[in-house]
Write a structure and sequence with these properties.
152 residues, alpha+beta, 5 strands, 28% helix
Length: 152
């Protein structure tokens, strides 16, 4: 179990390997972002991207899946008070394999709730060429081990 105390400012981790498929791009886009360069491979050839691209929110959803699988399922996560920034820097294409680079930027104990702490992270979603396709600045709340030990 990973607690607030286990995050080290400056620490960088790399994880995940998720291959994006044409079928999931089209399915997601038809439901949530039905622009032709997300839903129609032929129309996408005439777009500025030259091929079918994943909607940005699909990229964020894949990032979230990788984060949950790598960290949150085995952490004392208490949710998030918000995302400070999301930037899509390069298109994500069918066949791309995405991974995540995470860096803890800062952390602090909450003054109003000392049993938990806040960790500010920078997440970079990378493709198989190590190009950053998405940059996310986010905040996570985690239980403190010290607070849990004190209540036992």
């Amino acid at each position: 179990m990973r607690y607030w105390e286990d995050f080290e400012v400056g620490e960088t981790e790399r994880y995940g390997a998720y291959e994006v498929t044409e079928a999931e791009i089209i399915e997601f886009a038809k439901a949530y972002d039905p622009l032709p360069f997300h839903t129609d491979p032929e129309a996408a050839k005439d777009s500025p991207y030259g091929a079918l691209t994943a909607p940005g929110l699909l990229t964020c959803s894949i990032f979230m899946r990788l984060l949950v699988d790598h960290l949150l399922l085995d952490a004392a996560s208490l949710g998030s008070p918000g995302v400070d920034q999301v930037r899509w820097l390069k298109p994500v294409y069918a066949g791309d394999t995405l991974s995540v680079r995470q860096q803890a930027l800062s952390k602090r104990v909450l003054e109003s709730r000392s049993e938990m702490g806040l960790v500010k992270n920078r997440f970079e979603v990378l493709n198989q060429h190590d190009e950053v396709v998405c940059d996310i600045a986010s905040n996570g709340l985690f239980a403190r081990r010290e607070a849990e030990d004190a209540s036992a």
